[in-house]
Amino acid sequence: MSISVIGVSHRTAPIEIRERLAWTDAEVPEVAARARDAGGSGAVVLSTCNRTEVYLCDAGPDAVAALWDLADARLGTPAEPYGYMRQDRDAVRHLYRVAAGLDSMILGESQIQGQVRRAWELTRPSAGPVLSRLFQLALRVGGLVRSRTTLGAGAASVPSASVELARKIFGALGGRQALVLGTGEVAELALACLTGDGVKTALVAHRNRERGAELAARLGGQAIGYDAAWSRFAEVDIVVCSTAAPHAVVRAHAVAPFVARRDGRPLCILDIAVPRDVDPDVGRLENVFLYDIDDLQGVVAGTLGSRQREIPEAERIISREVEFFWEWYRGRGVVTTIRALRERMESVRRDQVARTIRRLEHLGPEDRERVEHLSRALMNKFLHGLTVRLRGAAGNGNETQLADAVHYLFDLDVAGDATDAQGSE
Amino acid sequence: MAAVPLSGLARRSAPRRLTLATATTAVAAHFAALVVYAAVYRQLPFTGLAPTLSSFAFLVGLLALAMLWLTGEGALVLMAAPLVVCPLAIGLLAGFGAPPSAGAPQGGWFLLHVVASLVGIAFLGVAFVAAALYLAQHRELKVRRFGVIFQFVPPLEQLDRLNHLALLAGFPSLTLGIALALAFGAVAGGAPAASAAHLVWGFLAWAVLAAIAAARMLGWLRGRKAALASVGGFAAVSVAFLVLQAVTASGARFL
User: Fold this and answer.
1) pLDDT tens digits, one per residue of A195-206
2) b vs e for B217-236, b when ≥16 Cβ sit within 10 Å of the residue's Cβ?
3) Of B219, B215, B211, B214, which is closest to residue B237 (Cα–Cα)?
4) Which of A249, A256, A346, A393 has its CA 20 to 30 Å from the CA of residue B163?
5) Which of B144, B158, B226 sits opposite A291 (nearest CB)?
6) pTM for the model
7) With a CB-CB cutoff of 8 Å, which residues 143-172 of chain A face chain B?
8) ipTM value for the complex
């Protein structure tokens, strides 16, 4: 009886290795089925850009070796030096930490929660009852950590910092209008985050008209030239700047008359270009909030700092939940043993009663029923103390030795029991 | 009520339920205390300095609780707490003894006048809370400081809307309170049943609220300017009250 996880992650393997070991959604169910068939009662595969992990239930060394062989074949070189393996409580803790975002590249990021859910859904047929329960609980623990700590609060990347700043000015961003000046990879990501929050790209200004039209078609909105852009500072709510200009293109004297027409409405300018696109004097205009890349990175640093402070509390929650799961898991093993023992005893009782009644043919139905009742009562009396002690053992850590002893002494069928237990879930 | 912000500040992750529960308990306890006062002295807590200030503090607490329910923003309660605690402290200093019975106005009109006026002033207090938070957040955003205030205080536009709504709600209420006082004065033979200081303060509060609310409605004031006007207006009303209370030496009477 064991739970284990083997895998590679951003902590142990560089991107070149991780990308070759990442399985697509289409491949994941088959890999999980193969992992389970290699030995064990369940397997779940979690494959993201930052980690590829296989969770196994009741897997022996052969199953683990088979999985490393599979990884070796895919990588072309031995994968084990880049990987890790955790067992039992450590494996459960690992999954809980992953689901809570504690093991993520960006501490506390929430995307992993969806990825854990997806992994479980994709591999549900091969997950088995234990891993199914474990993954459901991991999702619950992830949610618990996020709700009871601020591990998931704030912006942890430059694009999300853009959204957070805009939200602190406008509140809800739905229906706000954005003007995009130039373009760049980070600016596009920031814009994607903003539009994801309901911001509408109204205008795209670019020095190159064709490129501007292409961007406007992709991002939505209308393409305009730089000269026409300044007057729009009176209308839009958010300006995202990311041109390749070697100097500031947005000057205070050019936009000040239009900003003055805003009637006190705030204007958020996100200057993501290096060198900066916006003259710092623009930020001194009334109701203009100007942020450059350093400010956005400052927001990110602040967020990560406060997230770091939440780690001890998150770890406390996880430790408690690991113990809850482990108690259930250990108890589940004892239940299997008790059930197997009762079935064995019941089988013996039935055989012996049948044999006895064959020899006592003169007994009437009532007497036969009495014999039947007596045998059942005796069996229950004999098993009661044993059952109570076995259940008690699940609470003090002796359950494995005692269960093994019972299996040995009463010659119980382990494989059959495991199957029964699965069927009962 | 003073403990309400602490429940939100002790841990930034403190569940909203805890803040709500603390605030609800505080407001309920305050209400119970007012009911007990009314039962003991057989008079509503609208006569005398301490009971009136306590009733005002209760209304501010109630509005803060309503804002907390609606917005979930603990910062609003944090800023509202001094507006609850300070009047209560002044009331306690003045003493919650037996209310002055001689010459104290009675009747339905008086009750309506006091409730409408206190609600109007309480809304002005809420507008002040929103405005003060607006100015704090505005400063953080301008100087690009992303610390506790940035994280804890609600967004600018939300605070601006709250300020606007509080002014719009407070103006008709205070106007009704003043109008009732004037109407009763006219019916009672042209002599208002209040001191000159009471009248001066009442008209000053109404004029301040009317001016800011009108400027907001006409679009002359918005954002930072509206916040400055609200803070200035509420400060003027508060200082005028304290000065008049001290100068007239009205003791346990409300002006």
Assistant:
1) 888 888 778 888
2) eeeebbbbebbebbbebbee
3) B211
4) A256
5) B144
6) 0.68
7) 147-150, 153-154, 165, 167-171
8) 0.80
